[in-house]
Structures are given as structure tokens and as C-alpha cells.
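Attaching the record inline, Q. Sequence:
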Amino acid sequence: MMKILLATQNQGKVRELQELLADEEIEVVSLRDLPDWEEVEENGETFAENAALKARAAVQRTGLIALADDSGLEVDALNGAPGVFSARFAGEPKDDERNNDKLLGLLETIPDDKRTARFRCALVIAIPEGKEYLTEGTVEGKILRERRGTDGFGYDPLFLVPELGRTLAEISLTEKNDLSHRARAFRKAIPILQRLKG
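Structure, as predicted:
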């Protein structure tokens, strides 16, 4: 069985990838399985650069095939902001409520039809031989004027998925995992992992 490292402490991401790989004879381990892991500084200018920094560090440290993702919200009226700064949009410490308040403030005068946005995820697979593979996933939506829903986290209560007529905070985890930007990037990674497994 092939073992891969998902470079995250987030057990939700690990479960998501394990479910997608359930039939593949691939074991997924995470940073929680590594003692004394030092966080990688995410100083890239894009999601792909940040994902690559994490994947490279993980493969160098462990010798395992490593996957790492970086994701966030891109708002068209803000020229793609908050982008790579999504988690810390309102400054340190990270705070979802302050981030949402800042976003609502900046978009206050923006008409409804110009509030288009997307969640984007970049996933990098790094292998010990030095090669890297990039997959990306997006989910398109609009930013509402007030929060709706109690599930999810981050910007989910403000992010309306038009074809559903609901925000990401108003849908079940199963639905979210089916359409999320991360799930879409993970699904594109499966054929690559199948090839690497040989």
C-alpha cells in the first residue's frame, strides 16, 4: 500500500481525502503523525506558491509523496482580495467574524450584480524525486450583504452558491464536500496518485 502525507493538521481535510481515496489502497497520514513539525512560512504570492512551499518541506522532511493545499476567497470587486490573505484579512489573530465584517464593509457600496467571487484551492503533489504536480479547484458564487446559515466556517455564511440558492453555511457537510473548491482539486489529484502508485 502506498503511503502519502497530507501536509495539514486539519483532520477534516484528512478525512475528505481518505474518503476520496477509499478504493485506491493509499494510506493518508498527516502532520499530526509527525512529532516536532515546524510550520512552514506561507510567504508565496499565490495559492499555488504557498501549497508548493508546504509540499516541498513535507517531502524533504519525510521522503513520502506529499500533498499540500492552500485556498481562499477571491472577490472580483476587490481585484481578487482577500486572496492569499483570506485567513488574516482583518489582521492577527485570525478571526472569522472580523474578516467577514471587513469584507462586508468594503463591499457596502457594491451593487448585488457586481459581488461575484470564488473560492479557489491549489493543491501541489511533491514526490521525492523532485517532480511536482498542481491541481486547482474553484467554486463560483456571490457575496451576500448579511450572514446566512450556521454551518461551515470562514466566509461560508456570506458565500451564496447561485445554483443552490443557499450559502455554504446552509448546506450539509456532504453537499459541501461534493462541490467545494478543495474537493474539486483533490478529485483532480486522484489520477496523478494512481499513476504514481503504478
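Residues 139 and 169 are 14 Å apart (CA to CA). The first helix runs from residue 11 to 20.

More tomorrow.
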